[in-house]
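Table S7 (text form). Paired inputs.
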Amino acid sequence: MNRHDFLKAGSLAGMAAVIGTGNAFGQNLTNNEMDKLVDANGNFVLQPLPYSENFLEPYMDAETLHLHYTFHHGGATKAANTDLTKIREALNSNNLETVDYWTKKLSYHLSSHILHSIFWTNLTNKTSDPSGALLRKIETDFGSYDKLKSYLVKTSKDIDGNGWGILGYQPYTNKLTILQCENHEKLTQWGVIPLLVIDVWEHSYYLKYRNKRADFVDAMFKIINWDNVADRMNNALKLTS
């Protein structure tokens, strides 16, 4: 194994320690074409935004997007690389006194990197609604799009502290499910593949919306890229069919 393959394998092993690449979620992250979490050298990497920083205005201002993407998502990506390096050092030195600390940090930072990578692609600059197979799946699993929307909106607004509202696909039941994720990694369901994520950390909205998280969540539903959500569902179904 050359250095490139070794580094990439190490990063994937780090992901496996956090999310388990043997499950559908892990397979989706490593196989789909939308979420490139590592570079050619196997390092966790911040991919370019799929649009300009003012693309989501007026619902998300350019200054917030810049700070959010560059320092919060970017910081988590750098930290995940540091965490993985520290774990490797502990293993190579056969000194495991700190490995639990860095493993917890990796869970936090890598989960942030994963969810943010999904978040940026979930947004666009126009209002749309789900359609086609995605809409039919929503109607089967929730009754109607309006019911799904009210459920996800309420869940996102009411998270204790910081976190994410998530619409995901649960392969074990073949159903869509809603997660109320605290921080980046708490209260999740093993194996669920995120399709749509709503970031309700204060850094997502505080400059424009101040303390009005509810207004921010309502605004996000005006710019959800439902085509991206549909593509993600199709990828998930391919993995589990």
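Next pair, protein 2 of 2.
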Amino acid sequence: MLLKDKIALVTGSTNNIGLGIARAFAREGAKVIIHSRHAEEAAKIARELNGDSFAADVSRPEQVGALFDHIRKNHRKLDILVNSVAAQASRAGVLELPLEEWNQTLATNLTGYFLTIQHAAKIMKEHGGGAIINISAASGERASPGRAAYSVSKGGIFALTKQAAVDLAPHKIRVNCIVSGIVGTPIGSKEMGNRKLEYDSIPLRRIGQPEEVGEAALFLVSEKASYITNAVLAVDGGRMNSMGSASGG
């Protein structure tokens, strides 16, 4: 097992990409801490994976602190952190976007990542190192019309990953980023019931599955990737780097 006896926190792990990652980690022997803002949903997935759970809003520093107090008290260490929480902002460009929505989107999608990295790294440093993955999107690289807050928050994740990788490398903490493309997730089915499976803008001509992102994350946090840090891995069927693709993801 690639992650035997490892303790892993996956934020936003009750559905979508986060759930796919949590399941991959649990299969490979990790004790996974399932996170959500909703305690009952987190507890349900934790029972499925024989893991632990905690409910917190990552945009609120005091709740992030409580999450990591729980980890210290109940697990004493943390080997892996995956930041998978993502607040979807409305379709508003820089001219129309309300400041309140801007602040809330960045508080969740960027400041929340910073807070969890900071708390996790302090624990990892005490125990000889660890691995961190931040989930981002192609819109952070190229922008997406009418999605100002979301795109800027995703672009900030790239910069945060680079900075954290450099600052934490002396403590043997690796930090990488996964760019997830269009993925056929449970919430996607619920909110976009008519979502098509094939896209001309994707070189591989199909959307991805949460399990495929999970396998990429599993590799990056395992010892097989022990010399990889400060990297951005696109798991998107080739979409981000294709001239014919539209952003929006």
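Residues 99-126 form the longest helix (28 residues).
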